[in-house]
Design brief:
Largest sheet: 5 strands, parallel
Structural class: alpha/beta
Distance between the termini: 24 Å
Strand content: 15-25%
Number of helices: 7
Radius of gyration: 18 Å
Number of strands: 5
Strand order of the largest sheet: 3-2-1-4-5
Shape: globular
Order of helices and strands: EHEHEEHEHHHH
Length: 182
């Protein structure tokens, strides 16, 4: 459930938001009623096409996350949900995130950290090398904090947003809606 964002200064305007790596636009649609301007950005034209159906009010742009085509201090909120591991130059994206955020703005990044060892994904048991591949693709929390500091953010904090505990056996794995890809 989304809560209203705090307003900037004494203005009645709600914040402007940018989602980098917006994919099919799920979060754009969820934020649409809570922002005065919502922009989705993704490398994939196909994903942006799907995003348009989920968030018709959103403006969409295509390009590289390491070179965002927006003016300095353009947004109050920047979201990156399960996308950072896809960006070829992650530190460049973090620097761009800082550049396009207004003073007092916030960047929310959602993703996993396979380096931490807190969770064990069953795929790591069945597909040799998968954990190592994920450890190369996903930055550790420590690396991310280093990039955030280097980019000039004033504060960095992290927390566990959600942990899903479930034991599935046999056909139950195939019937689980969280695991289905259609």
């Amino acid at each position: 459930d989304l809560h209203p964002f705090p307003t900037r200064r004494s203005s009645d305007l709600q914040p402007s938001a940018l989602e980098v790596g917006c994919g099919t636009g799920y979060w754009l649609g969820a934020l649409a009623g809570h922002t005065r301007r919502i922009v989705g950005f993704d490398r994939s034209a196909g994903m942006l096409s799907r995003a348009q159906t989920h968030a018709p009010a959103a403006r969409l742009a295509q390009g590289d996350a390491g070179q965002l085509p927006f003016a300095d201090a353009s947004f109050d909120l920047l979201l990156c949900v399960n996308a950072l591991h896809h960006f070829p130059d992650k530190p460049a994206f973090v620097a761009e995130a800082r550049r396009v955020l207004r003073p007092g703005g916030a960047w929310i990044n959602v993703g996993m950290d396979p380096h931490a060892g807190r969770d064990h994904w069953y795929l790591y048991d069945y597909f040799p090398g998968t954990l190592e591949t994920d450890q190369e693709r996903f930055p550790s929390a420590g690396a991310l904090v280093d990039w955030v500091k280097a980019a000039g953010f004033e504060r960095a904090a992290w927390s566990t947003a959600e942990r899903i505990y479930a034991v599935l056996r046999g056909a139950a794995v195939l019937d689980d809606p969280m695991l289905q890809k259609h």
